[in-house]
Amino acid sequence: MLAGLLDLDWRFLLPAPPDGRFERLLLLGGPPAVAELAARVGLARAVTLDPSERGDAVVCLHGAPLSLEQAAARVEPGGVLYYEALRRGVPRLSRAAASLSGLGLVPCGIYWVHPAFTGARTYFPVEARGAAEWYLGSRARRWVERRVLRLRPDLPARVARRFALVAVADPTNRGALPFRADALPRPLGRDDLHPLVLVHGDERSRVVMLPFAADSREPVAVLKLHRRDVPAGESTHEQAALTKLRARLGPELRTTVPEPLGVVRSGAAVASVESFLRGEWLYARWGRRLSRAELIEDLELTAAWLVAFQRESRLELRRWDSDEIARSLEAPLAAYEQAFGATAAEALLFARLRAQARELLGLPVPIVWQHGDFSSYNVLRSGRAIHVVDWEAAAPALPLDDLLYFVTRWLYRAHGVTPERVGDTLAELRASGGADSFRSFRRLFLE
Fold it and tell me: What is the pTM of this model?
């Protein structure tokens, strides 16, 4: 069985060892390929699958042959335990966690794992009752989920079946984040935080960690953890871009994009930290039954935000010349033709683009900060305010691209096109059977 980095995302729930790497990891319940991958990413200096051995990190995935008490007995002094299990409710698991104290372990996190232990999933911290309520309140697509959470915020944890428990054998290291408290920026340098962890996307995407205090109703900050080793420049790019673009924004617009709080490292774990922004994700909002007027209001508010943002963050007026044509037009066309070739119709389109580009020689064009993934997945609405997150792909560029990207997907939603997230290329649209997508695309760009 092949293993991927998503199969190791439980590692981000383990408190950080002193030097960022465990000495010996006892890993049970998963296929050998997961153990091999854990060793390859540097999670521990040695990885064993022998249940009779001990380790300063003991990880029992669902189906491991050890009971909770047996697994706890395998933890070396100062070590950490991660244990997955099916439970009927939180009280029973809490009693089991309390029994660990007799074995010298201190629980530092109990998580409801939804919907499964593998694949895309979310770890909800049971100790932070506001975490599930906030998550489903801002991301839930069905009104019934939102109503249930308002009435019974503790209900999901009480009826859930899948849980994960984290405990430590060092009472001075009870932090539930994979970084030591003294290495984290404010407001994260504390031991009473419980992270809600989102495992989505693929190996290239990042794990999103949203720390909650026990009594907080929203995250205190946002950590984005890289699943793979990344060059220093890549890990700090988003922070640098946010710093630069925020410096060009006035006080009002500056509150609509995250504040960069730094990059932290612990062994192989690297996280970009930023402030939390309130709001409901548009993709969750669009999953509900909205009127045409409500959808148009979403479009108008988002477009108005983008216009204001690009005006304030404009970098320069650049003369449109042959160098700009080569950079902005010829380079992407060449990359497209090399990857896909060009049909006769595409060749005609490209020729007309080149001719039109030459007609504009000498005119000034604005260079602005481009988001790079300006979609309903990264735009939040709070009342009539628009907030925009995930600036990982931000770069100086020509305007309009972000707007066209957003409007295309907005039009799919307005026309009721399914699936919601259609392919980016015509070939992908065709493969998905998206005849409605074709019609919407043609209406927007050609009619």
Answer: 0.86
